[in-house]
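To make this tangible, this section ends with a sequence with its structure tokens:
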Amino acid sequence: MASLANDPGGRRRIQFVDADGLRKTIRLGKMSKRQAEAVKLRVEDLAAAQLSGGSPSDETSRWLANIDNGLREKLTSVGLAEFRTRKLLGEYVREYIQGRTDVKPNTLAKWRTSESLLISYFGASTKVDSITPGDVDCWRRELAETRSENTVRKHIAVAKVFFNAAVRQRIILESPFHDQKATILPNNTRSHFITTTDAKKVLEACPDAEWRLIFVLSRWGGLRCPSETLALRWGDVDWDLKRIRIKATKTEHHVGRGFRYVPIFPQLQKHLEDAIEQAEEGAEYVISRYRGSHMNLRTTMSRIIERSGLAVWPKLFQNLRSTRQTELEAEFPLHVVCAWLGNSERVARRHYLQVTDEHFAKAVAVDAAQNAAQSVHAHERSQPQPQGEIAKKTVVLQHGANMGIGVHPDPIAEAGLEPARGLPPTGF
């Protein structure tokens, strides 16, 4: 238990006995009695946790994380709190990014973009633990003024990485980003299905065999471009089994997802053969001419599409993968297609599979065929039947009744004749 004592001038002090049996004093300075009582309750909780070797209550932990440095230093001096260095935002984020040596260069580049946006808004000298959820709401609204919702979510997701790490490092108790939405939303307005006819036009506009191969590997192989396309080696092509071993650079950090295999589809065979015939002896990579860092495949791809007479579609290479996934899913089970293209079924349904004009055409054609069949059937039923057929049906009905078979008791007589007499009881 702790005790509260009053000193001259409205000053307060708290006394308690620590785990070693020593009496310790915390001088609060000028403070109302009500405020001092509230602090005393927290001191008692902290002292009890110290004595038992456990942790204080969640409420006390939150209180401790948010008190001013002066009071925290007093608690630290008597062993009730740990010394806390209040990290500056600019320093903390920079150190965190530099320490993540396990992250790929492209990911680091994206993190640095989000870092610059954070620093630009909050300031490098802002203390990490001073940023509130309300501050984050304001930052998000500012980002949304000039960026799409998915772009905003990407930056929010990166900021979550930074601040979740700060929680684990005990720099802050709770991330101000914890309730922010960061899941990327599917955007069907940017989906585009590249038909076989259009794909052939693009192929004809490609300048050489390597560019044709780059295109078909995306359109009919479903490879990610440029990462998977440029990583492809001739040693990965198994001509006997007609398979290609793909190094999945995007998913290699997941267990068992560093490589996958893609069939050498008929649309790929010729272009692979053309490329290897023109490759230099001893060439390691399938694509060799367009590997330099100065090469921008997207820019060149846009020019090739324009040269073919088509309009440049959005998400140049992803829509090629999306088109192939949609085609293959119509022929093979989804789990097989996902294994070939290297994504999950959830991602495929959410971001890759498209509804095409062919789907609508097929649905209309099936419906029309069913309507035609029903019309023919209805027409046949409406036609008058030959006299002999009616007589046969009457005999069959009467015979069935005599055999004890459940048949309607009033057989239909031929039009214009006397009404048929009722059949004798069947005994049922």
In short: The longest strand covers residues 23-30. Residues 197 and 203 are 10 Å apart (CA to CA). The chain has 17 helices and six strands.
